[in-house]
Amino acid sequence: MIGGGINGSGIARDAALRGLSCVLLEKGDFSSGTSSKTSRILHGGLSYLEEGHFHLLLENLHERDLLVRMAPHLVRPLPALLPVYRGDPRGLWKLRAGLGLYDALTVGRTGPGHGILTIAEARRRAPFLPSEGLKGAGLFHDYQMVLPERLVLENTLSAREHGARCLNYHEVLAVADEPEGLSVTIRDALGGGSRRFFGRTVVNATGAWADRVGALYHPGLAPKVVPMKGTHVAVPCTLGHAVFVHSRHDARLFFALPVGDVALVGLARSPSNADPDRVSPEPAEVEQLVDDLRRLVLSSEPRGPGVSWAYAGLHPLAAGTGKGGSPSRRHRLHLEGPSRRFLTIVGGTFTTFRKMAEETVDAVCQRVKHPIPTSTDRVPFFGGGFQDRVLFRENLCECMQAIPNLPRETVDHLVGLYGRRCCDVIDVALEDEALRRPIAPGYRDYAAQVVHAVRSEDARHIDDVILRRLQMGLSQDRGVAGAEAVARLMAPELGWSEATIRGEVERFRETIRRDTPHPSGAAARA
After folding, report:
1. How far is CA 11 from CA 2, 80, 209, 272, in A?
2. Which end of the chain is more exposed for a tag (fewer CB within 10 A), N or C?
3. Distance of CA 45 to the CA centre of its chain
């Protein structure tokens, strides 16, 4: 298995649950690619209505509802407003018809219904909305996964628990046919040296990198991916609701989502030829997003919001599966090579990763004659296994009352990241009272979480911990103020010297500087 994002980790988990021998290889850290650069929404598929893709809508809804039930600690309800202004390409009547059809298609599902709000109702729910030209708003209920990186870890750790080998910082250099299957040559980026793995099949689940990895196997393979760039900007702004509205710059959909103490804003994706290893937000993109947010949320104020941080990623659409050969959101599985044992999975959405994994492992099982069906729609995720998060938290808080420096808010925070596995973190915290303290002022994460990330979650660099294991990477400074404290907690676990600590801190700060360009012009002055 090549690729340690949401698809690769999901496939590894499915394969391990079926009893298959599996090795997962990721050249960087788990979820360090596209999976950590999403809009952090579990889409219910509302946008598919306009396109007439009812099959995709129902598939997204089914998979989203499975995630809500099986990973309740990672998923949050997300009420969303769809305001309609004078001149918008989507009128109020069209929105009313769309939401009515959506409710009809989803009849019998749990959750609140959707509807149309008057101008007064919309302003009452979202006082920040400009009133000029406002005709009303749709009220839609979706779900949010604030830390999608944690779901990748849930899959990876669950796969490992069931027998898979999951290796980050192992780059694939070559894939070759062998008499009984295929060989994969890898380079250990941390330990040095190279070695080979042998398997009866190889799955390429590398997303935007799929064509590059395919070329390692056979340079003549046809392109399978059409990359679409998505840029997101975090702005210090408090939102009670998510908001989806058409951009004032073009016809694309603009959205603003509450994520911690920032608003995460973005636009509908656009085609891009950027290098997936070096894709970053362009200053013009950042400026447009900030300007759209200022028009939407702060139009009455003389100055618009500034930028806390930004990121960009490439979403891989499947090439040639839409009308007239255009790219499509449908996923596609390619079986190639003399014995059709090199499998490439592309397309789909973050929400449908489990279904994509099921179909991929079904194909693997056919090739290796291992007729075991999937169980990923029934087996809880690594930190799941409970239905009511509030009840689970309350029971846990009652059990932890006697532990000093472990208040209710700490337990609640840990449950929201680790689910039932938060007890593993608490075990680490019990080793030393200092591990039960916040990492640094202003952050909710605790010292024990850093130690746990190194010992049990394969974190090897500061950015692994801050950006992909903890919540502090979503703060306004993206965890920069706590970087040295994190490094000093990691140092005894990894044997770092003082020079290594300083180098790691500077490496992390450089990563944040590189990934966060600031807009020019009026937005920068704001």
Report:
1. 10, 31, 17, 27
2. C
3. 17
At a CB cut-off of 8 Å and minimum separation 6, what does 499 contact?
none
Domains with residue ranges and CATH for the chain = 6-33+149-222+320-368 (3.50.50.60), 74-144+226-318 (3.30.9.10), 389-515 (1.10.8)
Question: How far apart are the C-alpha atoms of 383 and 393, rounded to whole Å?
Answer: 13
| CA dist 185 → 164, 167, 201, 226, 486 (Å) | 18, 14, 14, 27, 34
Q: How far apart (Å, rounded) are the C-alpha atoms in residues 78 and 84? A: 19
Say which amino acid occupies 428. V
Angle at 436 between CA 430 and CA 440, to 5 degrees: 155
Q: How does pLDDT run across 78-128, given as a tens digit for each residue?
A: 999 999 998 887 888 888 888 888 888 776 665 666 889 999 999 998 888
**45 Rama class: left (phi>0) / alpha (psi -120 to 50) / beta:** left
Q: How far is CA 418 from CA 335, 378, 448, 461, in A?
A: 36, 19, 13, 20
User: How much is the pLDDT for 301?
Assistant: 43
